[in-house]
């Protein structure tokens, strides 16, 4: 087990970012929201690897090591089989590849729900092994006690309400939430509960826009939207989704590029050159000294 702390690595030759910046902190993220609104929205993307983190870091305020890595990296059918070992390994890689953003690591399903004490054991392991600045967990009122427990013991918590993918079996799918008045009120109560419990920010996912707007206006912590509203205090997406790595993505994803198409074309060229023996060429081949 290797332990990596969040050191200032700006002088290390392993870290090629040209203009190292001082890393943002959780209190600075929280303070970005004042008088009920964040002037400039917070920018968050998921990251799972060191190189990906290096590329995203200069443009983001927060990097989320999401448990969506279960689907995106490991090809699992949901986020439920994701383990603490996976989150620690990818969390450490993202911290090593970033210099500026606040890194937040998802707590995997099963690692925190049973009790605040169990949650602290999992969260403290994540903090110690990755060097991340905070953890994220899914749930509202039911997780308020756990959020207060972790925060009081030195672990900042980002909460996640609305469409909570770890609860897919209770919700019955990934459809948008909050279309009934009862559900609407429950999601607002969840957001207020996590804010009152001391979460430094909250993700609201897959809800009808009026809920996202009402929540953003009613809590003092930044509300980060995904499938929510442009009026949230920030936005997050799964990086591979917005880069166009996947054919099928949720409706709330905007595909900014077609990376899958680029990879396909490039690999097609490589395969052709191998088959017609034009790769490797003279420039990629060693010859004996004359
Ligand atoms: N690549 C990826 N992107 C994500 O946004 C994401 C993950 N993985 N894994 C974890 C959760 C799961 N999420 C999901 C997954 C599927 C839908 C989806 O298919 N939504 C449909 C509607 C589904 C329905 O109505 O039943 C859509 O068209 O938006 C939404 C969010 C969000 N998260
Ligand atoms: C989609 C985001 C918010 C997430 O929770 C994840 O990446 O797992």
Automatic annotation (TrEMBL):
GO biological process terms held by the UniProt record: methylation; pantothenate biosynthetic process
Gene Ontology molecular function, alphabetical: 3-methyl-2-oxobutanoate hydroxymethyltransferase activity; magnesium ion binding; methyltransferase activity
Cofactor: Mg(2+)
Record's cofactor remark: Binds 1 Mg(2+) ion per subunit.
Keyword field: Cytoplasm, Magnesium, Metal-binding, Methyltransferase, Pantothenate biosynthesis, Transferase
Binding site for Mg(2+): 67, 106, 138
CDD domains xref list: KPHMT-like
InterPro entries: Pantoate_hydroxy_MeTrfase, Pyrv/PenolPyrv_kinase-like_dom, Pyrv_kinase-like_dom_sf
Enzyme class: transferase
Subcellular location: Cytoplasm
Record function comment: Catalyzes the reversible reaction in which hydroxymethyl group from 5,10-methylenetetrahydrofolate is transferred onto alpha-ketoisovalerate to form ketopantoate.
Protein name: 3-methyl-2-oxobutanoate hydroxymethyltransferase
Organism: Pontixanthobacter aestiaquae
Gene: panB
């Amino acid at each position: 087990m290797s332990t990596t702390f969040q050191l200032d690595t700006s002088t290390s030759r392993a870290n090629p970012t040209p203009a190292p910046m001082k890393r943002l902190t959780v209190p600075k993220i929280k303070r970005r929201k004042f008088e009920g609104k964040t002037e400039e929205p917070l920018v968050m993307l998921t990251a799972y690897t060191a190189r990906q983190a290096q590329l995203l870091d200069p443009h983001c305020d927060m990097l989320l090591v999401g448990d969506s890595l279960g689907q995106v990296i490991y090809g699992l059918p949901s986020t439920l089989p994701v383990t603490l070992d996976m989150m620690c390994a990818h969390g450490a890689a993202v911290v090593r590849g970033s210099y500026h953003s606040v890194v937040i690591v998802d707590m995997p399903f099963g690692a925190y729900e049973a009790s605040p004490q169990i949650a602290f054991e999992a969260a403290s392991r994540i903090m110690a092994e990755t060097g991340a600045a905070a953890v994220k967990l899914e749930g509202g009122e039911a997780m308020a006690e756990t959020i207060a427990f972790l925060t009081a013991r030195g672990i900042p918590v980002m909460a996640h309400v609305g469409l909570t993918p770890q609860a897919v079996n209770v919700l019955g799918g990934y459809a948008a939430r909050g279309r009934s008045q009862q559900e609407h009120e429950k999601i607002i109560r969840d957001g207020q509960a996590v804010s009152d419990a001391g979460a430094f920010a909250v993700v609201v996912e897959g809800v009808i826009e009026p809920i996202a707007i009402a929540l953003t206006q009613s809590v003092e912590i930044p509300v980060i939207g995904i499938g929510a509203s442009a009026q949230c205090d920030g936005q997050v997406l799964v990086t591979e989704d917005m880069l166009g790595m996947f054919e099928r993505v949720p409706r709330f994803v905007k595909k900014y590029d077609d990376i899958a198409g680029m990879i396909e074309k490039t690999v097609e060229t490589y395969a052709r050159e191998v088959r017609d023996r034009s790769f490797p060429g003279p420039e990629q081949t060693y010859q004996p000294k004359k």
